Amino acid sequence: MPDYKKNTLNRLLNTVFIIMFIPFILACTWFYLESKKRTSEELHNSLRIAASNITNQTIGRNIHDIEQVFNRIQLLALRKQTDLHIKDNSGPIIDTVNEILNTTDLFLNAMLYTNTGKFRIIPEHDITDEAPQNAPWFPHNTREREIFFSLAHEPRSPHGKKEIPKQVSAAMHLFDINKSRIGVVGFDIDMANLSLALKKIKLPYGSQVFTVDRSGTYIFHENPGKRLIDKIPEHWMSNLREVEGFFYDPVTQKHVHYSVNPNPEWITMVTLDHADFSRVVHSFLNPLLLIVFICFIYYVGFAIICKLYVANVIMKINYGLDGADLKEYSNDLSSIFSKIKIRTDKFKDVEIRSITDPLTGLYNRRKLEEDFSKLPQNSKDTYLAIIDLDNFKSINDKYGHVTGDEILSYIGSSGYLLNNEKVTVYRFGGEEFVVLFLDVNSAECMDILNNWRILVSQKQWREKELKLTFSAGIAHWQGDSLNALMNRADQALYEAKKTGKNKILSSIDTHAH
């Protein structure tokens, strides 16, 4: 064949194979970019869920416990209708505060201040506050039942043998039955003890979690060298524009996901180094790159073979000879799609687990808040019940945490049987459960709960002497917030506990008394 015909044939074959290769390059490029985008979004979503869950379950639970303490003292002040008498060595207020300090691990000490100017710290030690009203912990808000959480501040004096560079306090004004202020009660929060919960949280991909106050000071941190001492970078605070969100800081090269608790304004942050972020994202894409490279090698080999065969056929045709058959090769990307599906299913599983309690299998607090936010405002027969296991702490101490977990698991499995389109059971935290009733009247609610209570009380345990009961409080939804509804149910639960336990009371019953 003449040289010009060979050159024309080579150019033609090269052009054909390049045109055939362009869609493959475009498809691989699009697939790579889309997979990288989806992987990044799923990674961000999992970190966002982690930050939200820690805020709702860890921080939110601690705040709920602190609110219960203050509500208990306020109710006591309303019932007594007297001065606080904080200079006495005993009395309703003093005895209650001592009991709280001795039975909970939330606080270091307590501060009591009356409108008559009396001031006392429990446990007793030298008072260095010249004017408590000017102290960082003193609440200047005057609304009833509003708790003030201070920023990290210098301690007034050493707490026993503990060395604390700074501390965080919570305080609230107390009112009598006439809505007049009679004093202030405050507590120094044991941030070191509450930070222990962070050590139990296992976050994926080497990410870190901590909580800061509105000044940016670390208040929850597993590293005691940072807690109540160091601050996050100052420019991070300007990026907190939503209740939940994330941003990337090029200075520290960190991806930061955050969730803001409304009161106190504590911000939980989950951070991931950009190097770890890129490693995770590209670890999902490495199989794709490998297959693309293999396909490219096959394509080049196929193109070379085809070119040789086509050139030989054309040459034989030109010389009047028979042509030869060409072989075809193919590649598939099914393994990549399989891997992407596995990753997608994994992230969906993370989403499901974020609204499910792992021990009981019931929905958790986050799911309760989601379901409650979807309730129609014109719903009339909507009730909420709070269930608390009687004497669970002493049972847990006596028989051990394994038995305690078995009890919670049994409550969960028996409560799960109640679930239907009108009744949903949630584990609120610890030994507390919540039941949401839709389109069910009060009598039916009481029947359902009483049947469950009887079933639990008749349960035969491996420990023969173990008897388990629970108490519950029910409140009717009146179109108000979830917190308001739960407060009314919680007051009914408090009355059920106070009047003998193993019973169910509604908020209407407690108001009647």
UniProtKB/TrEMBL annotation:
<dbReference type="GO" id="GO:0052621">
    <property type="term" value="F:diguanylate cyclase activity"/>
</dbReference>
<keyword id="KW-0342">GTP-binding</keyword>
<dbReference type="Pfam" id="PF00990">
    <property type="entry name" value="GGDEF"/>
</dbReference>
<dbReference type="InterPro" id="IPR050469">
    <property type="entry name" value="Diguanylate_Cyclase"/>
</dbReference>
<feature type="transmembrane region" description="Helical">
    <location>
        <begin position="12"/>
        <end position="33"/>
    </location>
</feature>
<dbReference type="InterPro" id="IPR043128">
    <property type="entry name" value="Rev_trsase/Diguanyl_cyclase"/>
</dbReference>
<comment type="pathway">
    <text>Purine metabolism; 3',5'-cyclic di-GMP biosynthesis.</text>
</comment>
<keyword id="KW-1133">Transmembrane helix</keyword>
<protein>
    <recommendedName>
        <fullName>diguanylate cyclase</fullName>
        <ecNumber>2.7.7.65</ecNumber>
    </recommendedName>
</protein>
<dbReference type="InterPro" id="IPR029787">
    <property type="entry name" value="Nucleotide_cyclase"/>
</dbReference>
<dbReference type="InterPro" id="IPR000160">
    <property type="entry name" value="GGDEF_dom"/>
</dbReference>
<feature type="domain" description="GGDEF">
    <location>
        <begin position="380"/>
        <end position="509"/>
    </location>
</feature>
<keyword id="KW-0472">Membrane</keyword>
<feature type="transmembrane region" description="Helical">
    <location>
        <begin position="288"/>
        <end position="310"/>
    </location>
</feature>
<keyword id="KW-0547">Nucleotide-binding</keyword>
<dbReference type="GO" id="GO:0005525">
    <property type="term" value="F:GTP binding"/>
</dbReference>
<keyword id="KW-0812">Transmembrane</keyword>
